[in-house]
């Protein structure tokens, strides 16, 4: 039988991995006043999340050269860090944003992106501090409220996290990224039915992207509905991106036995 500590560790490991996908959605628009969400450069349009691996590599190479020429250019640093993070180069992305935060210590967009990079690297408490520094209480940004909630969820403070999600929804009703983060909060708790309900709302909301649907697929698959989960993972994507999503889904669902054990263990403790 799992101990309480082992149960929580398994739950957090599975759900926090998926939560990272949605945090990218939550923070993507924080600097929207100066750059288009997901943009790479004026000569490289398109959404980062929809790029193939070769496209991400090409964008990283191009932006890396621009960054080397002028590392203090804020927009270049933000774009470069975003591409590096989507390409799995988390430590390098954090290094870029750490320097940007030093160069632009009062810029909300930079601080928000720095918080995202810290959270992706697992440095949750510094990430929380950066997000809170970026927020302005007199004119709160719903994206930052949602991002703060996602970090608090990973720190185990689900009640505070959900209160922030609901404040964010008051400011931006029916926003897919907030609803998806709320669903992830219930996934972290092991409440898969509630998680699915919020994930379905998120997937049907305007602006929902493939990462939101991918997390819905994960929640559905964790309840044993594997064929439905794979259909969701393939929706509205190019064949190569669809296969990548399905591969991710299968890797997560390979731990299904752990989730079953968690459920059984909870029943025995109640």
TrEMBL record:
- Write the signal peptide boundaries: 1-31
Which positions does the entry assign to TPR repeats? 142-175
- Keyword Lyase listed? The answer is no
Q: Where are the transmembrane segments?
A: none
Which Pfam families has this protein been placed in? TPR_16, TPR_4
Matching InterPro entries: TPR-4, TPR-like_helical_dom_sf, TPR_rpt, UCP035836
* GO-annotated molecular function: identical protein binding
Alphabetic keyword roster = Signal, TPR repeat
Q: Does the entry feature the keyword Translocase, yes or no?
A: no
Q: Gene3D superfamilies attached here? A: Tetratricopeptide repeat domain (1.25.40.10)
Top-rank taxon, per record: Bacteria
The record's listing under PANTHER family reads:
BLL7664 PROTEIN, CELL DIVISION CYCLE 16,23,27
Q: What is this protein called?
A: Uncharacterized protein
* UniProt source species: Nitratireductor indicus C115
